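User: Okay, second chain of the day. Same drill as before: sequence in, structure tokens out.
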Amino acid sequence: MKKIITLLTITVLLTSCADQKQETTQEVIASENAEAIQKRRDKIVLQQQEINTQIKSLDKALAALNPEKNMPLITSFIASKTVFKHYVELQASVETDQNILITPEMGGILKKVHVTKGQRVKKGQLLATIDDGGMSQSLAQMQVQMALAKTTFERQERLWNQNIGSEIQYLQAKTAYDGQVKAVNSMQQQVAKASIKAPFSGTIDDIITEKGNVVAPGLTAILRIVSLENMYVKADVPETYITSVIVGKQVEVSFPVLGETLETTISQTGSFINPNNRTFKAEIEVENKKNNIKPNLTARLKINDYTNKNAIVIPQSIISENAQGEQYIYILKQINQDKAVASRVIIETGKKQGNSIEVLSGLEERRSNY
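Assistant: Same drill. Structure tokens below.
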């Protein structure tokens, strides 16, 4: 009987050791036994569910013992009155009225170009000359005839003043002289068209037609002259700002390519609204001391169309909206050291600038949270 008990004890111990020796998850996967893998997965899922249930029970017990532990942490700020400025931001371009193509007033062969590309010229300076086709010789002959007619008239006038000669002789001499003067003046105007002069002081940007080419009046561009002194920025402004974007309004002009910004005012606004895009024109004069602002350069405008010196401004990101479309925020009602009670208030907002928005009603100067 003693031997039988000993054998049973050894058997139980061997069985227990066999149960304790379990395959690892990696070994089960390596066995490629689908049934074994499924059993191992089901066992682990069951263990996970039991652990989650225990964690929830522990959290519930902790919450009952320490209710303040789950209070949310918030950041608060003081909503006080400040100066709020709203800006209309627009895309614009640099323009100048002194950027033109020079075309001739008369046709003919381009005789000579007196300037070079990049040259600075003054108003009235000779730029190019066109062959006048012999009009200069005709003018010289007409001037000789005018001088003769003048001499004849002056002599006849002296005789007439001395009551010598007939009135008809005096009138004929006067008419002949006046006619010659008008003819010479007319020819001088025609000859002057052969000389192309600078309409304003500026720089020769490009020479388009070279010497020897035939040019046509009003059609053939000979050169381009540009002045960088009187520059302005032009922008299309939506018609909704017609009462706020007016002459004298402050505007910030920036040139992204140049990395420069300047403060100026609106110098002119258009009186016509474009029916295609419902905009009107606004012009802002800009100083060009460095001559680095060029025509058609891109500019950005910030026009101060609205200012409230006693505005309550809050971040737009803290505003929520209910099902009725009303906007609301949370304010702190009670403050006790680091603890507070937040309550919801309905607000009415105004203009927005960046992430800041103006509060028109529903909020006085008080501490708010977000």
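The chain has four domains: 17-62, 76-84+309-369, 88-97+228-307, 99-225.

User: Thanks, on to the next one.
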